[in-house]
Design brief:
With about 350 residues, the protein is of the alpha/beta class. It is globular.
Length: about 350
């Protein structure tokens, strides 16, 4: 264990030195065409199991393309040592398509984010982000109103890719993305950055929400969004143990997946101090983590979960007081998620369950 900690410490220091070096050009680490290393996999209810490959360099329009401009589009960007087949992306895809009609695009950049080359993966972020931005502009030309109808979700390093997506769009004079969600954005090489343009930050989208589950380890502790949700105070997650940092890190996408089917399952609280005394926390009215996060939400929030799935303290099966006259969420409206029927739940209508 001491060897692991020492190795990780040296890695973080070296990463900070590399990313702060003005003579480093991330594009120098890419050989050949970016399209050889990054692919875009589209899933809809027409093709839930087999992806349709989108090619932003193609000008042709094919009849078998299942992309539907009238549906919300979600772009998911995986993290280090993953690809589009990894559980994080597949979990996001399955949950959304079970919920309704969506265009789900999984960005696969695993060749540029492979173990053990974390430094290289960090240096590749700008190029990957620029190519995803190219995809978004290509989609916009095909009827996807991305400024009102697009949600970008990134896990770990993928969250910081989203920042470079935003920067590239701005550089080309395009409007901001409606929403970016960072699922435990990577901490190593980003925690102490003095220039926010090199990582995900609140200016990257109209609404940036962050879920923190692995502070001071694989995830970032700094509040970097409009709304930052610290799950169990961002410390080792219940059921993971103190040494299993991968479990705590991955808990972020697991929680978001659960929130898609249970939008009101993760009510948030505001706490006066950074501590474990729940008595000093007060519920934040109509503030929920995950899918139902309201774009008007601002601040640092705290969320408690159960030890095992379902992680929500307000599981669907145990919610007895949620109004029964709630209308179904209309996913094809131009206001992204509408917003989840205006969240008319009152504080005293929450049913809480702990193990």
């Amino acid at each position: 264990m001491p060897y692991f900690i020492a190795t990780l410490f040296c890695l973080i220091i070296s990463l900070q030195d590399v990313t702060s070096n003005p003579f480093f050009n991330p594009f120098d680490h890419l050989f050949g065409r970016i399209s050889d290393d990054v692919t875009f996999h589209l899933y809809t209810r027409r093709n839930t199991d087999r992806s349709y490959i989108l090619d932003p360099e193609s000008r042709s329009r094919t009849r078998d393309n299942p992309l539907n401009p009238s549906h919300h589009t979600v772009i998911f960007i995986h993290g280090f040592n993953e690809n589009y087949r990894s559980p994080s992306g597949q979990g996001i895809k399955d949950a959304y398509l079970k919920k309704g009609q969506f265009n789900i695009i999984l960005v696969s950049w695993g060749k540029l984010a492979a173990m053990p080359w974390y430094v290289n993966a960090v240096l590749n972020l700008p190029a990957v982000g620029a190519y995803v931005a190219e995809l978004i502009m290509w989609l916009d030309n095909r009827g996807i109103n991305y400024s009102a109808n697009l949600h970008v979700i990134g896990f770990s390093l993928g969250a910081h890719v989203a920042s470079f997506v935003s920067e590239e769009l701005a550089r080309n004079g395009w409007p901001k993305i409606k929403r970016i969600t960072g699922l435990d954005p990577a901490g190593p090489a980003f925690e102490s950055l003095t220039t926010i343009s090199s990582r995900l930050h609140a200016e990257n989208a109209i609404f940036v929400d962050i879920i923190h589950t692995n502070n001071r380890a694989l995830g970032i502790e700094t509040a970097i969004g409009h709304a930052d949700f610290y799950v169990n105070y961002g410390k080792p997650q219940p059921g993971c143990g103190y040494l299993n940092i991968n479990c705590a890190h991955g808990r972020a996408w697991n929680l978001y997946v659960e929130s898609i089917s249970n939008p009101f399952g993760f009510p948030a609280s505001i706490c006066g101090r950074w501590n474990f005394f729940v008595s000093q926390c007060s519920p934040a009215e109509n503030v929920y983590m995950g899918f139902a996060a309201d774009p008007k939400t601002r601040g640092r929030f705290y969320v408690e979960t159960r030890f095992t799935y379902p992680f929500a303290t307000n599981p669907i099966s145990l919610r007895k007081n949620v109004p029964s006259n709630r209308k179904p969420i209309q996913h094809d409206s131009h206001a992204l998620y509408s917003h989840v029927e205006k969240l008319p739940i009152k504080l005293d209508e929450r049913s809480v369950y702990y193990t």
